């Protein structure tokens, strides 16, 4: 019996291994959600094509605005970011955020290879990602406060809807307090520095850079428009299904769904978002079926389409790896 004299090993970078694991998780995820996806198909088939097309167009606008928000966040710390690199960054971070604990925050640590090649300073990338994340939360709060106050005023069933907003407000205050403490080197900072000198020494550069106010303001403006597109998605979903839309219902359903995605530790609030949106819409006089199909179509526009594009972006990046594995088999 003859044994091969040498065995050739194929070295696979850990980033590509991670991409495969994420795709496997995505397969399990889509399989577990097949019931919801099967419910979506009849809803889309019965919808008006023109409104479906408009909804899809707003999804493309939503992705473009997210990319623009990344561009202005990076510009705020003096880093240039190309549009298609920003699109790729959003799609991939959005995709992995579904599978990571506290994905909306933890996914900000991920950086695609295209951006790594540009050799930006690590501290500035962290600053830009932090600006993007913080302003995203801030505009949800800014938009959410008047909507929820109005909803509590006109509908007694939503008296508890302020709880999620308070949690978000506390998170924003804590983040700003920590940022201000490290920026001004106040007593809180001095306590942290005395107890954890090595940690403070490492993260100090993140807070020392000056920020461009013009691009910060642009980021806030873009993020606010993104929230408006979300409300429009709910409204258009109603129009597409031939349901009489109301702005109040669309605005509150969207706001609560986003708050749930933010505070949910797993899967971006999947399941809880759908249940809550259906409940909110029924309180505005819509039937359970109308609330369900509206929610499912809205989730296609706001969740499933961007998630699908993110999956495709990972698959396109790993196409050479899949070919190599196929040849080995």
Please tell me about this protein's structure.
By secondary structure, this protein is mostly helical. It has one domain. The protein has 15 helices and no strands. It is globular. The N terminus is likely disordered.
Mean pLDDT: 81
Q: Termini, distance in Å? A: 23 Å
Major beta sheet summary: none
Beta-strand content:
under 5%
State the secondary-structure class. mainly alpha
**Number of helices, counting only DSSP H or I runs of 4 residues or more:** 15
**What radius of gyration results from the CA coordinates?**
22 Å
| Apparent shape | globular
Q: Which parts are unreliable, with pLDDT below 50 for 5 consecutive residues or more?
A: 3-15
Short description:
The protein has 329 residues and is an all-alpha fold.
Helices and strands in order, then pairings?
Blueprint: H1 14-32, H2 34-46, H3 49-76, H4 83-97, H5 103-106, H6 113-116, H7 122-154, H8 162-184, H9 187-195, H10 197-208, H11 213-240, H12 247-263, H13 272-283, H14 288-317, H15 319-328
Helix pairs in contact: 2-14, 3-4, 3-7, 3-11, 3-14, 4-14, 7-8, 7-10, 7-11, 7-12, 8-12, 9-10, 11-12, 11-14, 12-13, 13-14
């Amino acid at each position: 019996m003859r044994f091969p004299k040498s065995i050739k090993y194929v070295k696979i970078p850990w980033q590509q291994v991670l991409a495969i694991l994420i795709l496997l998780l995505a397969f399990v995820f889509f399989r577990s959600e097949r019931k919801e996806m099967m419910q979506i198909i009849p809803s889309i088939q019965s919808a008006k094509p023109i409104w479906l097309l408009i909804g899809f167009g707003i999804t493309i606008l939503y992705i473009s605005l997210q990319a623009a928000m990344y561009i202005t966040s990076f510009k705020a710390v003096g880093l240039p970011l190309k549009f298609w690199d920003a699109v790729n960054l959003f799609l991939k971070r959005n995709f992995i955020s579904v599978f990571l604990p506290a994905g909306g925050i933890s996914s900000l640590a991920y950086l695609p290879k295209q951006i790594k090649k540009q050799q930006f300073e690590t501290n500035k990338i962290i600053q830009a990602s932090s600006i993007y994340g913080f302003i995203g939360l801030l505009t949800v709060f800014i938009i959410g406060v008047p909507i929820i106050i109005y909803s509590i005023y006109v509908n007694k069933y939503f008296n508890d809807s302020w709880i999620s907003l308070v949690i978000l407000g506390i998170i924003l205050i804590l983040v700003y307090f920590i940022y201000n403490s490290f920026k001004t080197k106040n007593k809180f900072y001095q306590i942290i520095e005395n107890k954890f000198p090595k940690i403070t020494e490492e993260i100090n550069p993140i807070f020392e850079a000056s920020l461009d106010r013009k691009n910060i303001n642009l980021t806030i403006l873009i993020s606010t428009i993104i929230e408006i597109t979300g409300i429009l998605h709910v409204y258009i979903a109603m129009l597409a299904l031939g349901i009489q839309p109301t702005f109040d219902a669309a605005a509150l359903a969207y706001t609560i769904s986003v708050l749930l995605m933010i505070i949910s530790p797993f899967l971006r609030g999947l399941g809880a978002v759908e249940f809550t949106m259906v409940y909110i819409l029924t309180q505005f006089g819509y039937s359970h079926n109308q609330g369900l199909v509206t929610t499912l179509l809205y989730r296609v526009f706001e969740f499933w389409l961007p998630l699908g594009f993110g999956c495709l972006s990972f698959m396109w990046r790993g196409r050479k790896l899949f070919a190599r594995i196929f040849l080995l088999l």
